[in-house]
Amino acid sequence: MKPVVILVHGSLDRGASFSRSILRLTDTAVVSYDRRGYQGSRGMNLTGGFRSHLDDFFALAEAANEGHGVVAIGHSFGGDLVQAAALERPDLVAALGAYEPPMPWIGFHRHSSGSWPSLASDPGDEAEQFFRRMVGDAAWDRLSDGLREDRRADGPALVVDLSAIRTLQFDPTLLTMPSHFGSGTTKTAPHHRDTVEWLGANVPGARVTWFDDSGHGAHLTHPDAFARFIEQVRDSAPGS
After folding, report:
1. Sign of dihedral through CA atoms 40, 45, 48, 51?
2. Which of 19, 10, 154 is nearest to 74 (CA)?
3. Under a CB-based contact definition with an 8 Å cutoff, are residues 83 and 165 in contact?
4. How far is CA 208 from CA 182, 192, 223, 237, in A?
5. What is the pLDDT along the chain (240 residues), one digit of tens a residue?
6. At what angle do helices 77-88 and 49-64 cross, to 10 degrees?
7. Cα–Cα–Cα angle for 184, 105, 168, rounded to 5 degrees
8. How far apart are CA 77 and CA 102, in angstroms?
9. Residue-level pLDDT at 118
10. Burial letters for 47-65: b for 16+ Cβ neighbours within 10 Å, e otherwise?
11. In CATH, 5-113+171-236 is 3.40.50.1820
12. Are 102 and 221 in contact (CB under 8 A)?
């Protein structure tokens, strides 16, 4: 029996963003959830920071575990989370995948100066700025007023993520389970490509998948390729 796959979304995103890839999967039990503070989980307390996100993942993994672990796959910051979870609880994670995880501490930073800009005093403003930076001004301008407010409401959770990225430290070379990393090619940022290339070269037994003509949002723009990535990670788990 194939293990349960848990999909973990990134910053200013939600579990439903994987829906197009999930529809393309067969013979796969999938859990995709809104992380603490996002969309359907906005009522959850955020004071625990990154630790709370790990504990939430562990609770889901323990519920889905059938004695042989789960397959954990994260997009962007979700890729950081699944790696940290696998290092802490290798008994729960049978295989992992991470698409363009931001890991500036290994040497690749999206800011040329290597320093972090100040976060906006209003979390809603930070969410708007992040959306404009990642997706584009034109995409933000096309949103209805209601959708803009919906994104801004994710601001407090986004601030938790961005604060964690500035302080997070773990060693991915200590991963012991099958580990897969994905990245876009020409349309993604150099620091994402460089990070994934480094992970492929330094994590024992790691496999790298390059998504042709894809940027950071491959799960949205290339659902077929992302579904194949999920199946690749799933099938690498022991006993699959």
Report:
1. negative
2. 10
3. no
4. 6, 13, 18, 16
5. 689 999 999 999 999 999 999 999 988 999 999 999 999 999 999 999 999 999 999 999 999 987 789 999 999 999 999 999 999 999 999 999 999 999 999 999 876 666 788 899 999 999 999 999 888 999 999 999 999 999 999 999 999 999 999 999 999 999 999 999 999 998 899 999 999 999 999 999 999 999 999 999 999 999 999 999 999 999 999 977
6. 70
7. 100
8. 6
9. 86
10. eeebebbbebbbebbeebb
11. yes
12. no
CA distance 147 to 162: 22
**pLDDT number for residue 114:** 64
Q: What is the distance between the alpha carbons of residues 235 and 149, in angstroms, rounded to a whole number?
A: 40
Q: Chain-centre distance of CA 107, in angstroms?
A: 19
Token match 């959708």: residue? 147
Contact between 60 and 46 (Cβ < 8 Å):
no
- pLDDT given for residue 109 in this prediction: 82
Domain borders along the chain are: 5-113+171-236
CB 38 within 8 A of CB 11: no
DSSP E strand stretches across the chain? 5-8, 30-32, 70-75, 93-99, 179-184, 207-211
Whether 31 and 56 have beta carbons less than 8 Å apart is answered as no
In the three-class reduction of DSSP (H, G, I as helix; E, B as strand; rest coil), residue 45 is classed as: coil
pTM of the full structure = 0.94
Local structure of residue 105 (DSSP, 8 states)? G
